[in-house]
Amino acid sequence: MKKIIVQKFGGTSVADTDKIKNVAKIVIREKQNGNDVVVVVSAMGHTTDHLVKMAKALSPNPSAREMDMLLSTGEGVSIALLAMAIQAEGYDAVSFNAMQVGIMTENIHTKARILDIKTDKLRKNLDAGKIIVVAGFQGVTEDGEITTLGRGGSDTSAVALAAALNAERCDIYTDVEGVYTTDPRVVPKASRLDEVSYDEMLELAHAGANVLHPRSVETAKQFAVPLRVRSSFKLDNLGTLILGVDKMEIFKPVAGVAADLQQARIVVCDVPDRPGIAAGLFGKLAKENISVDMIIQSYARKISNTNDIAFTVTLADLPKTLTVLESLKAETGASDIKVDDNIAKVSIVGAGMIDRPGIASTMFETLAELNINIKMISTSEIKISCLVDKSDAHKAVEALHKVFGLECDEIADVKGDLPDV
Amino acid sequence: MKKIIVQKFGGTSVADTDKIKNVAKIVIREKQNGNDVVVVVSAMGHTTDHLVKMAKALSPNPSAREMDMLLSTGEGVSIALLAMAIQAEGYDAVSFNAMQVGIMTENIHTKARILDIKTDKLRKNLDAGKIIVVAGFQGVTEDGEITTLGRGGSDTSAVALAAALNAERCDIYTDVEGVYTTDPRVVPKASRLDEVSYDEMLELAHAGANVLHPRSVETAKQFAVPLRVRSSFKLDNLGTLILGVDKMEIFKPVAGVAADLQQARIVVCDVPDRPGIAAGLFGKLAKENISVDMIIQSYARKISNTNDIAFTVTLADLPKTLTVLESLKAETGASDIKVDDNIAKVSIVGAGMIDRPGIASTMFETLAELNINIKMISTSEIKISCLVDKSDAHKAVEALHKVFGLECDEIADVKGDLPDV
């Protein structure tokens, strides 16, 4: 039986008919390698923005069900066009939307999760020698309702299809050349990683490296689907392979350094040292769908018998968080709520740090030498994060990237502006 | 049980978000009348042209299957937007594409015919008080392949839905105010018909009145669905009701006059008077999908024992027709093939002419008085057509319109240029 390769192309890769022709060539090259190919595509370039704009002109708050009906047409266009472009090169191709394939999801609009993918139609068409083009980002419920998968949805569609078809690999083609040791716009000597583990990738993604949405990486990890991230425009570069840590040889303790500038720190001051206070506070935040990242509770002060509780949320969630805290002020008895939105979370990530002591102290020493004050620390098995002043973030990343031996010899050729500080 | 009204809005009626808001108001007004409403919409304005242009940029001859996949996205956009616009006015609405409803068609791409429409989902949602918005122009095969219905497809979708739901009426909203006794751009005193029979409408449509595609009128006739053609922009005008002749009181013998300027006459000269010659000729033309309209075979000449066979085809089919005739020249033994593309077919149509003699002679006399030469004549139960010189067409229409008492008192307010002569 032939190997199956699933390929995924995002909106920028199919933004116009010339780019669609380029994608057709990449697809055909994989077919010529002797593999069966299933291609997942997103909507063309700015299609989604255009559709959302029309919806907003008609309704201040359009229903989620109809938004899904509307947005799912975007991939309907790109799959048909890509199938035509492949056919024009003399190869047999057929396009299917999620309803036709049977990409079954929960009945939750705008952020459904995939429950099951039917493979009969896909296998039948692959066996007939066809290249299959599938609409990403969308699904269908048992009742025939059209759903969409939310952010990173097309990546997730591709990985789930690869899992369902027991594919050899899922190749995510995008406008970056792979996963880097750190943001090449901040550190020009950032190196592209040839391999990275699912867990490292997840920590890097959560820490602000936006190559792949965490959901697609989690799905790939769950089904052990090897995932390759590579550029649709620089084909001589194989990009980065994301796979299980058991399949990797790890030479370096730290795989990457990331800075997350979209964080705010909140300190709830002088909370009585009573059981249930923290549970009440974070329970209420969770109910409002606010993700809390780092949490520190200070030791109770002997005299006042009170605590300070400090935690971080994303800047986007800050207003909602403050509303919740205000409503809880009487209940918690807090004397004050302090907000610091001038911070950044700097993280080092590496599966190799598990068995090697001293990584944390190297990080702290490096920051100390630069006179960078650490405001909070949190750790996981493969990540250490420090909260620092926003103005220190780039300097910290640069130094950590160097001290953990991640610099490459060549300077990365990466376009784009530096992230705002 | 409530009465069901099916409404259909074409591409110009939903060309932008403001026009979609206008459509939402018309839909809601019908709901406020106490009726259940099912709305069928076409793709927005120039969407289809834009999609076709992209397809042509990718492939000189895109596959029909992928064209259907591509074009069906157009109505996907308009149904979702219209549902949102209705919801924004506080009414419950839900949109369905053809696959979701179950508008079952033959497995023929770009011009499929509807075989069956499932009504369970529609009835369930109507019973729940919802306004239903359905994608016109598209269907689905038993195997889940997406099809489109070809020209006039959305009108046909609407009529077929009305038939399946046993609807009270099907209202076709368009950019004209109804069906006229003749083209108001040619005869300013043309009057709008309050009623016209299916058969008259079919003859008028075939004779060049492009208000409705004949297919939708045929379907309406087959299932006895009353059809109303009216303007989406002038709501105080009820338009024209198209219904069975048995339900009409007919006062005038002639309902309308039409001119078809898109015809060419062909004469195949000196064909031997042998059985099977005409059958061979028209059989070959039919095989090439060329519709032949008027046919005249002259009496066999005694001396040469040959015939002339004259017939008309549309200008669009003329090149294909000549190719077929050229290939048959040896077989038929024709001495010459003459083409006249400087002609027009002028027709009078009326269910009332069945029982009234003298209509034909009035027509011929009227033309004779104007010195208009009649080149061919064909008749059906409710139509008489004369082939005349193209330059005589408008003059003929004007005179016939007057002599059969079709003039109205007011001059119709119609925009648009005169058709080319």
Question: How do you describe this structure in short?
Answer:
2 copies of one chain form a homodimer. The first copy, chain A, has 421 residues and is an alpha/beta fold.
Task: Write structural notes for this entry.
The structure is a homodimer of 421-residue chains. The first copy, chain A, has 421 residues and is an alpha/beta fold. The first copy, chain A, folds into two domains: 4-174, Carbamate kinase, CATH 3.40.1160.10; 249-421, VC0802-like (2-Layer Sandwich). Chain A is built from twelve helices and 20 strands. The first copy, chain A, has helices spanning 17-32, 47-58, 64-88, 98-101, 120-127, 153-164, 198-206, 214-223, 277-287, 318-332, 359-369, 393-403, and strands at residues 4-9, 36-41, 93-96, 103-105, 114-117, 131-135, 138-140, 146-148, 169-174, 195-197, 227-231, 240-243, 256-260, 263-272, 295-297, 306-314, 336-340, 343-349, 376-380, 383-389. In chain A, strands 3-6-2-1-9-11-12-10 form an eight-stranded mixed sheet, sandwiched between helices. A four-stranded antiparallel sheet of chain A has the order 13-18-20-19. In chain A, strand 11 (227-231) and strand 12 (240-243) form a beta hairpin. In chain A, 48% of the residues are buried. The mean pLDDT of chain A is 90.
Which labels suit this protein?
homodimer; 421 residues; eight-stranded mixed beta sheet; 34% helix; Carbamate kinase; VC0802-like; 2 domains
The CATH homologous superfamily of the largest domain in chain A:
VC0802-like
Query: What average pLDDT do the residues of chain A reach?
Result: 90
Q: Looking at the chains present, what oligomeric state does this protein adopt? A: homodimer
Q: How much strand content do the residues of chain A show?
A: 15-25%
> Which regions of chain A have little confidence, pLDDT < 50, spanning 5+ residues?
none
The number of domains of chain A: 2
Q: Quickly give the CATH architecture of the largest domain in chain A.
A: 2-Layer Sandwich
The number of helical runs of chain A is: 12
Number of DSSP strands of chain A? 20
